[in-house]
Amino acid sequence: MAKVMLRENDGEIFFYIAKKDMEETIESLEFNTDEKWGGEVELSNGETWWIQPGPKNLPKEEVCKKLAD
């Protein structure tokens, strides 16, 4: 589990982990509506993470779980 900052800029959603100084863009989302946003996400570096689905209120800080490299 990692604390992640999620923010949106020019239609792209950025996924930032301060501890690793890693910033990637989210390429795909399992749930992508304003009411239910998150689930399994794939990043631009190929990693897959889990974001607890909930309302899309960006920017926000979430605790996320890495599923695959």
Q: What share of residues are in beta strands?
A: over 45%
Unreliable spans are none
Shape: globular
- Topology, number of strands: 6
**Helix/strand order:** EEEEEE
Q: Please list the strands of the largest sheet in the order they lie side by side.
A: 1-2-3-4-5-6
- Indicate the multimeric state: single chain
Mean pLDDT: 96
CA-to-CA gap between the ends?
14 Å
What structural class results from the helix and strand content? mainly beta
Radius of gyration from the CA trace?
Answer: 11 Å
The helicity comes to under 10%
Number of helices: 0
Largest sheet: 6 strands, antiparallel, barrel
Features:
single chain; 69 residues; mainly beta; 6 strands; 70% strand
List the helices and strands and how they pair.
Elements: E1 2-9, E2 12-17, E3 22-32, E4 37-43, E5 48-54, E6 60-68
Antiparallel strand pairs: 1-2, 1-6, 2-3, 3-4, 4-5, 5-6
